[in-house]
Design brief:
The chain is α+β, with helices and mostly antiparallel strands. The protein contains 15 helices and 8 strands. Helices cover 35% and strands 9% of the residues. Strands 1-2-7-6 form a 4-stranded antiparallel beta sheet, with no helix packed on it.
Amino acid sequence: MSSTTFGQKGVEAVHNKDYAAAVPLFDKALESSDSPAWLLARAQAQQQLKNYDAALRDAELAYHVAADRGSGTSRKLMIDAQYRRATIYFKLGRYADSDCCAKWSMNLAEGRPARENDGVEKNVDKDGKYTLTYEDAVADKKSQPGQNGTGGGAAALASATTAKTGFENEWNRAYAWRSQALGMMKGLPEDHPGRKVSVTKIPARPVKQKAEPVVDASDDEQPASAPAGKTTKADSPAPGSVPDEKLKLRVDFYQTNQAVTVSIFVKDVKKDDLRVEFSENQVQIAPLSREAAPYVKPGDRESSSTFVLGGGIVPSGSRWSATPRKIELVLQKAIPGVKWGKWGEEKIGAVASEEVQTAASSSQPAAQPSANQAQPLPAKKNTSAPPKPTGAPAYPTSSKSGPKNWDKVVDGEDDDDSKDVNAFFKTLYKGATPEQQRAMMKSFIESNGTALSTDWSDVGNRTVETVPPEGVEAKKWT
């Protein structure tokens, strides 16, 4: 059977409360899939079988997989994962931890950012005991989604504008669970471990493990290398619900001697709300919507990006424009005629200017020097090296006069050439490595003389496009 068939049969088994049969079915289904829905269903089955460590591992992994996918159902699955954590901690007697997870489930149901630093787990006294009470939880209804104020009175007016999120049932479920968790804490001794908080909002990501055979609890011959139900954690906690690499936007660019045009592809751009700030080596843009994290709100770290540039620009001479699907930056080069090796890189959030400068200088490849910059001294030639071939290199060319022997062009230059506008390019070619010379020829010919690159890793595997100067339109010869 396929993994889908195993998963569907596992869901049916959970629905029929046949939890012992459901676990091996999900084990098979999850061998080739990381479906968060199946992980949550298996967590429910493991919880009913009192395999709490295994259940907690599945709930935590389901949270991370749902957050990574960033699909339309991700928030619902993340809400369910936090609620499942709350029920498991309750069964383990960790009532303070259970209340924290239930509150995080409510926050997600209200539409709040997944990575918001809400400080729920910090409600502890000097002895590390949870300070929230049953009465606090009962009164915590001010952010309940979907309220229309039908009850009348001041409370109704306060909640009349609360927006619907589509997760009202999930919010009510977590709200009711909090009363159970905090109700249990009422009768606990002051030194009971269930009063202490040891949970974090975003759990450490468990390592996906191969399914172990179901072993009866009374069996004394369990494998020593993999104890049943042992939770294996990653070496360090995950930094957030969605990795920064998945948040980054698609970017394209082209350049002329005077400017670099960068196109940033992002959906649902609101031009009136957009803030674009230029500096000498970076551009900061906010707010930005993210497909990988659809619930990001203005003010969140993820709602802004710092674009560290591959070269210096003139901020006052740069401009931007926006459409609902794209933001376009036209960046005036600080040094005209210098070709950028790449446009730069995107960093999520705001980055300090001194940090940006370091990043730009470390990531920027060596640019072609301008004619008035000092040239590096060429390396001494090895006298034992074989002489250059006298034949012209067989480079492809569109010239009517046939292939050009660039070696002879360079060897035949004299002092008068230093006054020629092409002298710099001849000197550059003469001092370049064979790989750089090959990149120069390929980029110059394929771009019809409008681009020149010395970076073979950039142009070797693509066709260099024609980039005419501003105000000039490239047309094919007919």
